[in-house]
């Protein structure tokens, strides 16, 4: 792709399509990545939220089931923000002639794709973590040994249920840092998309932080709680400042003559 002067900071499916065409894999028989690539074949056997059509995913969220819920919604909101950052980086890469700017946009695109995949993972993992807490709460406790096992498993599950949204908040905060760079150096006609991305990312952070907070009362480890509270406070403060700077840059751009 570098020979074609195209950005590789694009979705994996797009890269596969380009490689398929370049190697002529469709020339003899149709090349179906879902069947031919082992990672996709294995993944396709699972009923993941991120593999659903959007209409089916919305239906899944609307049902009166215990999961998916707000944690998964926060992660997917962040993933949408990441995808917009990747899009603006790819457009900027194509529009710019400076090798220095192209290199920067390529790096931003790749990092956005990486964080988008991470957030996509947390969409399902947040639901899995919640289901795990329900499962371990039903463990037997007929004797002291079983009670101890159950207590430890519940403690681990509760910590993990708080750790997942914390990771979501961190990913979204890191993407806001990317969005800030794009709000200054991205292709000017696409800066509205950067601003939308930043608002989505902030929503993801607020939702994720709420999900960390709601799990804290279930955790008995005082030091662990203190770490969680310190981290979400820092992430929120950093993110609010980043969002303010991005909004300022956007207003500045629409009042300029560059659009």
Give a description of the structure.
With 259 residues, the protein is mainly α. It has a domain at 50-86 and 118-254: Formiminotetrahydrofolate cyclodeaminase monomer, up-and-down helical bundle (Four Helix Bundle (Hemerythrin (Met), subunit A)). 75% of the residues lie in helices and 0% in strands.
Record field, number of beta strands = 0
Question: How confident is the prediction overall: mean pLDDT?
Answer: 89
Q: Separation of termini? A: 30 Å
Biggest beta-sheet profile: none
User: Whole-number radius of gyration?
Assistant: 21 Å
Q: Order of helices and strands, N to C?
A: HHHHHHHHH
Low-pLDDT stretches are: none
- Estimated share of beta-strand residues: under 5%
**What's the assembly state of these chains?**
single chain
Gross morphology: elongated
Examine the secondary-structure arrangement and name the CATH architecture of the domain at 50-86 and 118-254.
Answer: Up-down Bundle
Helix content: over 70%
Fold topology:
Elements: H1 12-23, H2 33-36, H3 38-43, H4 54-62, H5 70-95, H6 99-136, H7 144-185, H8 191-215, H9 222-254
Helix pairs in contact: 5-6, 5-7, 5-8, 6-7, 7-8, 7-9, 8-9
List key phrases describing it.
mainly alpha, 9 helices, Four Helix Bundle (Hemerythrin (Met), subunit A), 259 residues, 0% strand
Question: How is this structure best summarized?
Answer:
The protein is mainly alpha-helical. It has helices at about 10-25, 35, 40-45, 55-60, 70-95, 100-135, 145-185, 190-215, 220-255.
């Amino acid at each position: 792709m570098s020979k074609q002067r195209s950005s590789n900071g694009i979705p994996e499916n797009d890269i596969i399509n380009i490689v398929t065409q370049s190697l002529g894999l469709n020339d003899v028989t149709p090349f179906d990545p879902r069947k031919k690539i082992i990672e996709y074949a294995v993944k396709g056997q699972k009923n993941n939220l991120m593999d659903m059509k959007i209409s089916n995913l919305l239906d899944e969220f609307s049902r009166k089931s215990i999961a998916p819920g707000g944690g998964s919604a926060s992660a997917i909101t962040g993933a949408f923000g990441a995808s917009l950052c990747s899009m603006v980086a790819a457009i900027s890469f194509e529009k710019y002639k400076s090798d220095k700017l192209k290199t920067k946009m390529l790096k931003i695109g790749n990092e956005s794709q990486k964080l988008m995949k991470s957030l996509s993972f947390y969409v399902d993992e947040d639901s899995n973590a919640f289901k795990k807490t329900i499962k371990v709460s039903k463990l037997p406790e007929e004797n002291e040994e079983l009670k101890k096992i159950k207590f430890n498993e519940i403690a681990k599950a509760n910590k993990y249920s708080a750790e997942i949204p914390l990771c979501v908040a961190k990913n979204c905060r890191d993407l806001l840092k990317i969005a800030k760079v794009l709000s200054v150096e991205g292709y000017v006609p696409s800066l509205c998309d950067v601003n939308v991305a930043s608002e989505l990312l902030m929503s993801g952070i607020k939702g994720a932080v709420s999900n960390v907070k709601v799990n804290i009362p279930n955790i008995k480890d005082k030091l662990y709680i203190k770490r969680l509270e310190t981290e979400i406070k820092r992430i929120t403060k950093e993110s609010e400042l980043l969002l303010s700077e991005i909004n300022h840059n956007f207003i500045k751009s629409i009042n300029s003559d560059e659009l």
